[in-house]
């Protein structure tokens, strides 16, 4: 049990008529002392220092005090060590620098001594009655420590005022910092930021830190450049003429010299919409998830020559071929190489090379047996290209269902297919 000792003023105030002509009054609440009937007390004016004056106002609990020339605080409210006694008999008592009133009616004109240090020990005083100490009354509260005791109200008021000042200062600093740090990038820097996002798959927060802009600015730059390049690059014709394809035909296609394009469909996972109707539209039975589907075509030598738009995952591969605009590029003298499940023989105006399967027959012909492995081996190039592109970081997460994001993804898909195909 820590013994809390206090300093109390036990001297009774004597009311004696003062000899002076000026009457001073103490402005502390519940203090009736004045200099008219008391010559033992001194009356101190408020300090000129603004911070110290605020501490005085908080300590005496008068927030709206209007300080005038004769506003005083009597010496009863100061600790004895804060007062300088006069050297001469007729001298005046003065306060030490930084003194703050601390003794009031509400704290019984007393102050607790500071608690002992960690390594200090305090012996428990022997109880006067051993039996009473062993069984204390139920309504008696024994205070074993003071580190959780309520602070003095004056201290709380001072801390709250400091917190308000710091909060206001911090808000001002943040507003000024945000106004000074906001900067715009030059178009060439915006384009380079966009290329970093596309080539490296960097996160927007990382790009914001590197370029010294806000994360929302990075998002706006990416969206703006995506829409711009979608308009510019989307209008460029990447379909290669038939004569150029034949001039660079690889030797592996000697048995299929009229092949113009190798086709394959790919699916990208997207977020599931909340509407059951929309869920049924984008749900893919092949992936068992909501997806967006597109058609990709490459030339025999590996260049990407066709990238369709993105469609709901429930659409068939044959329907995508009809709606993608590929049929307008094909001519009777051409040939397309497809995978086994793309049944487009009845809608394309040209020859179709596909790995053979039975179609209800008991066996395949000798030519079909010999041609199936070769077509499968040549058609796997487009699947390999799609796999390499999907390994990029931009395709790690699900696609958000939004028109701008889908257009952005379509542009990214076109750029990546072109980049990966050439390299």
UniProtKB/TrEMBL annotation:
Record-level Gene Ontology MF annotations: DNA binding; zinc ion binding
Keyword Transmembrane helix found: no
Gene3D superfamilies for this protein: THAP domain
InterPro entries cross-referenced by the UniProt entry: HARBI1_dom, THAP_Znf, THAP_Znf_sf, Transposase_HTH_dom
Pfam family, one: DDE_Tnp_4
Alphabetic keyword roster: DNA-binding, Metal-binding, Zinc, Zinc-finger
Cofactor: a divalent metal cation
Top-level lineage group: Eukaryota
Domain THAP-type, residue spans: 22-104
Protein name (database record): THAP-type domain-containing protein
